[in-house]
Design goal:
With 455 residues, the chain is α/β, with parallel strands linked by helices. The protein folds into two domains: 40-316, TIM Barrel; 372-454, Arc Repressor Mutant, subunit A. The protein contains 19 helices and 17 strands. A nine-stranded mixed β-sheet has the order 9-10-8-7-6-5-4-1-11, sandwiched between helices. Strands 12-13-14 form a three-stranded antiparallel β-sheet, with no helix packed on it. The protein has a three-stranded antiparallel β-sheet with strand order 15-17-16. Strand 4, helix 6 (124-135) and strand 5 (139-149) form a beta-alpha-beta unit. 43% of the residues are buried. Bound molecules: S-adenosylmethionine and iron/sulfur cluster. The site of S-adenosylmethionine has 16 residues, from strand 5, strand 6 and strand 7. S-adenosylmethionine (SAM) is lined by residues 71-72, 74, 116, 118, 148-150, 173, 175, 212, 214, 243, 245-246, 248.
């Protein structure tokens, strides 16, 4: 078997800091799919055909932000009110058409995610119309319906409009609570304002409030990170994500670092290196867990059962996700779909003569043939992301094939192995995306025979 350090990590007395040099990518994956031309007839046929999936989701993309934050590559369009209201009108028309189709009606949706951009920047009335459009789809009594965004500008009118129209989960990007770090990153509110607002929202008896934190931001020292974790625990939030800053080409932090600069605070140019970030992850994980927060994945914890994180966990299992909006992505009958981001093209695709009652408008973008190894890959992605890869549902021939890689991970301090499961160590959880990438590299260089892939 071929084994390389990018698959196995390297032996080191401190695997948390040194098993890999740098996080490989935000997500791991291999496609195995080919681009597909989808005629309008085929598109309509897809929407007229019941689903074969037993779990599924809606993903609705709202690609507007008021400001471009220094660390982020998700900024797509400035939040001009008229532009947003035109978009929301078309989007809700599309949702209404889609909801009536046999594809939509054939099976309830387990989770709905309204992501962006900054969906919380739309008006309270638009939140209400969107919530009502979502309710036209078959939902379960406990379907998770998430609205993503930020606390700034999410006033009581928006909050009540969202609650009254079915939203039951709110995912807010906080990034850091530290006022100076926030200012340097282009965020609006100070620490006190954020904490007061979170404490107020999280008093709701059933809604789940989740916050995102990033470690590795310019100016964010270990001491500030420790205060960030403390503030998250005191904020009342029911769930928290801890994301390592990913250096994505083109964002302001990345452009500055190309010139050898750090976009630090007024008083600090500090930016944590990879080893310090590993320690930041370890600190956050152990602080949360020692305060009874439960780990749901390598980067997500909850302090309360109301937080379920259904969308994130099912999305990693390769379920059907019907995508809506410019820049939205998902899958229909096993075909990967990525809607193009261009707003003008997206609107043009929905002019009256192109619309049909049989399917939502086919917007520009990319479609892929079904990935033959999607179900197989999902088992490993999900298992490694959760921290435990259970062997119960994996063919013994496949396990035998992967044994050399699993043993190398064990030797390098990334996992422990017994006859029932591979369990990631703290270091393994920190490096789990590298391990997923490594596993796919291993399978590419040491292919399984096709019958095993199908199992
Ligand atoms: C699509 S963004 C939406 C955030 C929301 N609009 C806000 O302003 O907070 C979702 C999350 O991605 C994470 N994110 C964005 N850029 C990142 C980066 N470069 N590295 C790691 N996480 C990042 C942030 O934590 C952010 O909250
Ligand atoms: S963090 Fe949010 S508001 Fe800032 S650029 Fe990214 S998506 Fe837009």
């Amino acid at each position: 078997m071929i084994l390389t350090p990018t698959m196995t990590g390297i032996a080191s007395p401190d695997p948390l800091q040194h098993a890999f040099k740098v996080k490989s990518a935000p997500h791991a994956g291999r496609s195995g799919s080919k681009p597909l031309q989808v005629s309008n007839d085929l598109w309509i046929q897809w929407w007229q055909q019941p689903t074969g999936a037993d779990k599924r989701a809606l993903y609705i993309h709202i690609p507007f932000c008021r400001k471009r934050c220094s660390f982020c590559n998700f900024f797509e369009n400035g939040a001009k009110p008229e532009r947003i209201s035109d978009y929301m009108t078309s989007l809700c028309q599309q949702l209404t058409i889609a909801a009536k189709t046999p594809l939509a009606q054939s099976q309830p949706f387990d989770t709905v995610y309204v992501g962006g951009g900054t969906p919380t920047d739309i008006k309270a009335e638009e939140i209400a119309v969107l919530g009502k459009a979502i309710q036209q789809f078959p939902l379960r009594a406990d379907t998770e319906i998430t609205l993503e965004g930020r606390l700034n500008g999410f006033d009581d009118d928006k909050w009540h409009s969202a609650l009254d129209n079915g939203f039951n989960r709110f995912s807010f990007g906080v990034q850091s609570f530290d006022t100076e770090v926030r200012k340097a990153a282009g965020r609006f509110d100070d620490k006190q304002t954020l904490i007061e607002r979170l404490q107020h929202l999280s008093k709701h008896p059933t809604a789940s409030i989740v916050i995102d934190l990033i470690f590795g931001l310019p100016g964010q020292t270990m001491e500030i990170w420790q205060q960030d974790i403390q503030a998250a625990m005191e904020s009342g939030a029911h769930g928290v994500d801890l994301y390592q800053l990913i250096g994505l080409a083109g964002n302001r932090i990345d452009k500055a670092s190309e010139k050898g600069k750090v976009l630090g605070t007024d008083t600090s140019e500090f930016q944590a290196d990879s080893q310090t970030r590993a320690n930041m992850y370890a600190y956050g994980a152990s602080k949360l867990e020692s305060n009874d927060w439960q780990r749901l994945s390598s980067c997500h914890w909850r302090r309360d059962n109301r937080e379920r994180s259904i969308y994130n966990s099912l999305a990693k299992s390769g379920i059907e996700i019907l995508p809506f909006g410019a820049g939205g992505g998902g899958s229909i009958h096993g075909h990967g779909i990525m809607n193009a981001r261009d707003l003008k093209e997206w609107h043009q695709a929905q002019t009256a003569e192109k619309l049909s009652e049989l399917a939502p408008a086919q917007v520009p973008g990319m479609a892929l043939s079904p990935n033959p190894s999607a179900a197989f890959d999902a088992v490993f992605k999900r298992g490694l992301d959760s921290g435990v890869l259970e062997f119960g549902n994996i063919e013994t021939t496949v396990l035998a094939h992967l044994q050399p890689l699993f043993e190398a991970w064990q030797q390098n301090g990334l996992a422990t192995l017994d006859d029932k499961a591979l369990s990631l160590t703290l270091a393994g959880r920190f490096w789990n995306v590298n391990m997923q990438t490594g596993l796919f590299e291993y399978l590419a260089k040491n292919p399984l025979i096709p019958e095993q892939i199908a199992s």
